[in-house]
Specification:
- It is a multi-pass membrane protein.
- Keywords: Membrane, Repeat, Transmembrane, Transport.
- By secondary structure, this protein is an all-alpha fold.
- It has one domain (32-324): Mitochondrial carrier domain (Mitochondrial carrier fold), CATH 1.50.40.10.
- It is built from 13 helices and no strands.
- Helix 2 packs across helix 7 (98-127), helix 3 runs antiparallel to helix 13 and helix 10 packs antiparallel against helix 11 (234-264).
- The longest helix is centred in the middle third of the chain and has 35 residues, at 136-170.
- The radius of gyration is 22 Å and the shape is globular.
- The N and C termini lie far apart (49 Å).
- 42% of the residues are buried.
């Protein structure tokens, strides 16, 4: 009897130790608000600069269906489009619009990472998960909701820069917008202040689920990986977990991202509007004219981009956060 009791105590104590270790692995490094903002901003800017060529290819494929006929769309390929950019615009054109990308990504990533930590802590406090962290399903729900709210906050605050970035990246031979300030002024002149927020509805519909899945999948994968293989390099774990999270989120939210890009280019450079209806009606228009596959036009370069992009951003963020903690 005494032996059984001692065994029970040991097993219970071992379970408590395992839970304590798991909680320590799941808890983020405690750093100040400024360090959070710097880590998130630098991580986003660095990741976007590394994957700028693939980002531009994705945007060009996404908007092809707006002003191209069916024959042109059938001939489109990543290699053909990349060769055209080099031949007609030069190699540096792969980074066209990258300055505005960085100008957008610095505040966007800073706000999204910082807001995620704040929303997550608030939700844990409300639900009582800050004191008891044994519920995996509750943790997942908090991460999903926190990521979604962070995405909505960051996207709304930085949207005009995102719209300008899309329009600069979508330009090929004709340079209608000559830079960030010129684009902002021209859009306000041609389309009014509301023109800076074209496609915001589709953006919020897409970015909320996208960041929710990104943050949730990343933290869940990383926590599980660290528990199962605690000796693996934290840099490798962050890179791999971020890449897998990016694939999942991109697959789910890509149609919303495509509609967002096309709504952002509505009326650009003085062209006549293509989609005169709202966000949901635009989905129907694309399916009727290009088929269901039209909603995933450009998904291949998106996959090529998102695997290193999301992996790099989480890896850089965790590394900088660790250095500053």
């Amino acid at each position: 009897m005494q032996t059984e009791a001692r065994v029970g105590v040991v097993m219970e104590g071992g379970g408590q130790i395992a839970r304590h270790q798991r909680q320590q692995l799941q808890q983020p490094a405690h750093i100040g608000a400024v360090a959070h903002l710097i880590s998130g901003g630098v991580a986003g800017a660095f990741s976007k600069t590394c994957t700028a060529p693939l980002s531009r290819l994705t945007i060009l494929f996404q908007v092809q269906g707006m002003h191209s006929d069916a024959a042109t769309l059938r001939k489109a390929s990543i290699w053909h489009e990349a060769s055209r950019i080099v031949y007609e615009e030069g190699f540096r054109a792969f980074w066209k619009g990258n300055l505005v990308t960085i100008a957008h990504r610095l505040p966007y990533s800073s706000i999204s990472f910082y807001a995620y930590e704040q929303y997550k802590n608030l939700l844990q406090l409300i639900t009582g998960l800050d004191k008891q962290r044994d519920s995996v399903s509750a943790d997942v729900c908090v991460r999903l909701l926190g990521g979604g709210l962070a995405g909505l906050t960051a996207a709304t605050m930085t949207y005009p820069l995102d719209l300008v970035r899309t329009r600069l990246s979508a330009q090929t031979n004709t340079m209608y917008y000559r830079g960030i300030s010129h684009a902002l002024c021209t859009i306000c002149r041609d389309e009014g202040i509301r023109g800076l927020y074209k496609g915001l509805g589709a953006t919020l519909l897409g970015v909320g689920p996208s960041l929710a899945i990104n943050f949730c999948a990343y933290e869940t994968l990383r926590s599980h990986w660290q528990v199962e293989r605690p000796c693996d390099s934290p840099v490798l774990v962050s890179l791999a977990s971020g890449s897998l999270a990016g694939i999942v989120s991109s697959t789910v939210t890509f149609p919303l991202d495509l509609v967002r890009r096309r709504k952002q280019l509505e009326g650009a450079a003085g062209r006549a509007p293509v989609y005169k209806t709202g966000t949901f009606a635009t989905f129907g228009h694309i399916i009727r004219t290009e088929g269901f596959r039209g909603l995933y036009r450009g998904i291949l370069p998106e996959y090529y981009k998102v695997v290193p992009s999301v992996g790099i951003v989480f890896m850089t963020y965790e590394t900088l956060k660790s250095i500053m903690s």
